[in-house]
């Protein structure tokens, strides 16, 4: 797609991806065929772990064919889970938006009798968004992330802690990264804990 000044003017105000996106797509050899046919000598690839794995495969294929193509991988993932990178594009925005959800959960939980605000956040394999949003909001009582193991039951379990919070404060807010344990199972257990606290 030829990109002219008129075409890209104010592109930052449009949502989504202007050039298009795909999951999977053509084989690496077909991509390099296209690069070679178009005489491209520099390729910028923006994305996360999967995208970077694809960029590496393209680089390897270019080297195999002895093509002089620079492949530049730019980290862009809201999960902030690319090794050796302090911060990736999109992470700060994700944390800011997560704080809005946490604020809403806090208001709802505080206004309900024995309320539990449960916020599930993105984080397929890491809890960076949940952790940073929880810390910066100051309203989260429990933050569950995949990097730290936890038990639901028992003397030092999450449920025991939630019951104590509800006794002392009357409500609580829980933030969960999607990769922390079985989130769907956790949601059911927390709902059960909420009903148990009402009739206790």
From TrEMBL:
Swiss-Prot/TrEMBL GO biological process terms: fructose 6-phosphate metabolic process
Entry superkingdom: Eukaryota
Report the Pfam families cross-referenced here: PFK
* Cofactor names: Mg(2+)
Question: What keywords does the record list, in alphabetical order?
Answer: Allosteric enzyme, Kinase, Magnesium, Metal-binding, Transferase
Spell out the InterPro entries in the cross-references.
Answer: ATP_PFK, PFKA, Phosphofructokinase_dom, PKF_sf
According to the UniProt entry, its GO molecular function terms are: 6-phosphofructokinase activity; metal ion binding
Question: Where do the Phosphofructokinase domain residues begin and end?
Answer: 3-182
Q: What is this protein called?
A: Phosphofructokinase domain-containing protein
Species this protein is from: Aegilops tauschii subsp. strangulata (Goatgrass)
Lineage runs: Eukaryota, Viridiplantae, Streptophyta, Embryophyta, Tracheophyta
């Amino acid at each position: 797609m030829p990109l002219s000044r008129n075409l890209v003017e104010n592109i930052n105000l449009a949502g989504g991806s202007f050039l298009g996106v795909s999951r999977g797509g053509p084989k690496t050899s077909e991509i390099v065929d296209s690069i070679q046919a178009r005489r491209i000598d520099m390729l910028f690839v923006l994305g996360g772990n999967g995208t970077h794995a694809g960029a590496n495969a393209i680089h390897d294929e270019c080297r195999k064919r002895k093509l002089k193509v620079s492949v530049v991988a730019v980290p862009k993932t809201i999960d902030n889970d690319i090794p050796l990178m302090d911060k990736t594009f999109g992470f700060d925005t994700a944390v800011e938006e997560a704080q809005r959800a946490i604020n809403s959960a806090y208001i709802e939980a505080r206004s309900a009798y024995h309320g539990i605000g449960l916020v599930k956040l993105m984080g397929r394999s890491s809890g960076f968004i949940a952790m940073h949003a929880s810390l910066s909001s100051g309203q989260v009582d429990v933050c569950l992330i995949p990097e730290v193991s936890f038990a639901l039951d028992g003397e030092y379990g999450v449920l025991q802690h939630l019951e104590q919070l509800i006794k002392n404060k009357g409500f609580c807010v829980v933030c969960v990264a999607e990769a922390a344990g079985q989130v769907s199972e956790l949601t059911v257990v927390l709902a059960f804990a909420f009903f148990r606290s009402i009739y206790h």
